[in-house]
Amino acid sequence: MTLNSRQNHPDAGWRFDNTYARLSEVFYARLDPVPVREPKLVVFNDDLARILGLNPDALKGQEGAFIFSGNILPQGAEPIAQAYAGHQFGSFTILGDGRAILLGEQVTPEGKRFDIQLKGSGKTPFSRQGDGRATLGPMLREYIISEALHALGIPTTRSLAVVTTGEPVYREKALQGAILTRTASSHLRVGTFEYAAARANPKELRTLADYAIHRHFPNLTTDTNPYLSLFAEVLEGQASLVARWMLAGFIHGVMNTDNTALSGEAIDYGPCAFMDAYDPNTVFSSIDIQGRYAYGRQPQIIQWNLARFAEALLPLIHEDPKEAAEMAKQKLSQFSDIFRHHWLTGMRAKLGLMTQETDDSGLAEDLLDMMHRFEADYTNTFRDLASSSLPDDTMYQSRDFKEWYGRWQARLERQPDSREASRRVMKTFNPAVIPRNHRVEEALEAAVEHDDFTVMERLLEVLSRPYRQPPEEAGYHLPAPASAKPYRTFCGT
Ligand code: AMP
Ligand code: MG
User: In terms of DSSP H, where are the helices of 183-297?
Assistant: First the structure.
């Protein structure tokens, strides 16, 4: 097969549209992925491929290796690197896809549209000092976590394939190069708008906002102030998303504004991890020295990111800057209530509360405080509460817990639903398994060090049904042994 040939399997099912590439060229650079020496397909997501209308059989062999490495382009693709800016750890920077190429938008048989992006596909005009490449471990990590989030019902970008490139990538040492194929409702970010706003060209900004509305919120077109409504919709989506992270014990790790998607999908969570023992101050990322993106700070950080989004939109919201700022501020001030609503709805489900009482949030918060004091495992505590008998454990034996348990039982008594019904609800909202850090590392080590992908495949299988109790002996539900070193994650380079 020749490099960058556009001749490929007619039955693969590609159906590309390229609406983003039809916007003004200020929003991207046109270029092909940089071909790699020896592409090998190591992971392929059959389930996602079918949703996309792709034919797994046509893509799993050599053809897939060439397409998902960027060595050949699927029919209809118009590859680009997207331009964007962003606040990284609070500081504004001009960025852009420094190691990613958007092939285009695959239109599914149901008429849905998904960006198909190669991550680790070589240098672009936005690469700055970077090499444009990615290594195998972090790409597999994104694959595992994105599939886990998806199975938990949390909106997220997903992973279609991983190829190894047969080329070394130099970090602290030489590592295996790899490319992840990622799908997303779109890659529009708060940072895309910050980029447009920084160019100080209202026409460009308007074009981008109209594009976002058309793509994600088409019903807003006829609103009296569609741009203010766009802000409100994105705020709603992000409040809901971050509430779901909080309920699942998920820490994104690098909530820069360039990693906040307009679609409300979780994206670019390189140093992410799930918390074991409940502690709002939990940080895993090795570069997050100040704990800016700690578990408990995620709601306030997303509100901060939304404020940056509002600032970018101001010229479209009202011609008078003061009026515009007032209107945006007013919407932004609703964030806490909206977030709280999503969080409390989820917490009620986690506690099996089918009715609403004013003290429900107090009940949940008292439990969390106690879990913090006892260093209780976040996931397993809720799962324990969903079972009919509690295991032997220091917290469950404590007076504090017995007092709380009495209050909870009395609360359950006051609702008409049977205990069995509320337990059933709890079991569909409290996962039995999350991607435990040591299990993820074990899967990555087998794949990266020993070329053994079976550990990862087994883990993915369990994570695809997180609410089902896996066999006890496999231990997927267990937190890391107490002897384990504090867990550290690294940005996905
Ligand atoms: P991320 O942490 O993946 O969200 O990336 C933040 C920014 O750094 C984006 O603009 C990336 O394109 C860029 N970047 C990350 N790694 C590399 C790399 N190896 N080469 C070039 N750019 C990179
Ligand atoms: Mg990013």
Answer: 190-198, 202-216, 226-248
